[in-house]
Amino acid sequence: KCLREDEPSEECKNLLATLPKEKGWISSHLYNYKGLWIGHAKTLQGVLAFQQHFQAQDSDIILVTTPKSGTTWLKALVFALVNRMNYPVSGQHHPLLFKNPHDLVPFLELRLYFDGKVPDLSSFTSPRLLSTHMPYASLPKSIQDSKSKLIYLCRNPRDTFVSMYHFPNRLGLSYIETNSVEEIFDLFCKGVSHMGPFWDHVLDYWKESLKNHTRVLFLMYEQIKEKPEIQLKRLAEFLECPFSTEEETSGVVDEIVKLCSFENLSNLEVNKNEKLSTGVENKVFFRRGEVGDWKNYFTTEMVEKLDHIIEQKIQGSGLKF
Ligand code: A3P
């Protein structure tokens, strides 16, 4: 069962059928397109159209994550931050109170280019706030060549894995029963996961952030959880819209943190009972929103295996999980 029912083009279906494949879990299979793991012909269609047609603007702000790394949270935080002059955070009419963050900051390959056509982006005002799950190497050249800003949110792979493990269940996908946690875990460790390998995804953006820190900001989910105000101020400085002293003393930073908190967003009517314009229920994006939930799922063998892989993959990079 696909997330959406509309049919991909024959060309994409045929191309997908020629690609190496593995068992999947959010989709029944994962297909490897030039090093990138993709679940459906429609996603491939979106990826290709995005790569071929997207024209970046220097003022674009593009949010990047692997699935289940806290994308929804990052979208809320950056939307509230960038639009704080237009939409006062304490106001009763703030868009985040009535719309899910995915409707306010749309995915490029999974939404705007999903139909394989060139979308009309003329209603987006500058700076355009957009998002993607694509690895750095697969981004359209126009993004790589532009001065657009990339904000990358990374999450501990253990919690990302657990969140991914739960996601098909939350979407109500039926074949989940046939997947054991061990089987999915082995795939994840091998790098077989949506828009993965996870390891290359994280490392490539990490390296880009070190090379060009005014262009790519690398954030960690766990650090935002620990000190949200500090990370929000980092974000504001990176986006060249730092908080003024007046804003800080009047509590704007805290208000944004509160507005975007798991407790607040997940309890809003819109996120409890409404759907995205794509038909996906908003509540699927909110589960526990905690650090360390992996401890409730990992066996000793899983802990050892992942520790070993993490060490191998990220040693010498300066990254720590
Ligand atoms: P869990 O499954 O561990 O609870 P994504 O947004 O990339 O799909 O990631 C979803 C994960 O982020 C889920 O993790 C979800 O609960 C968590 N999440 C969603 N909104 C959040 C928020 N405002 N603050 C912290 N975590 C949030």
- Overall geometry comes to globular
Q: Would you report the number of β strands?
A: 7
Discrete helix count: 16
Instruction: State the separation between the terminal residues, measured CA to CA.
Output: 34 Å
Q: Give, in order, the helices and strands.
A: HEEEHEHHHEHEHHHEHHHHHHH
The distinct bound ligands, ions and cofactors come out as: adenosine-3'-5'-diphosphate
Per DSSP, what share of the residues sits in E-state strands of 2 or more residues? 5-15%
Low-confidence stretches: none
The helix/strand class is alpha/beta
Give helix % range: 40-55%
Query: Please, what is the average pLDDT?
Result: 94
Spatial strand sequence of the major β-sheet: 5-4-6-7
Round the Cα radius of gyration to an integer and report it: 19 Å
> Describe the biggest sheet?
4 strands, parallel
Please tell me about this protein's structure.
The protein has about 325 residues and is an alpha/beta fold. Helix content is about 45%, strand content about 10%. It is globular and about 55 Å long. The model has no long low-confidence stretch (mean pLDDT about 95). The protein binds adenosine-3'-5'-diphosphate (A3P). Adenosine-3'-5'-diphosphate binds near residues 70, 71, 72, 73 and 288.
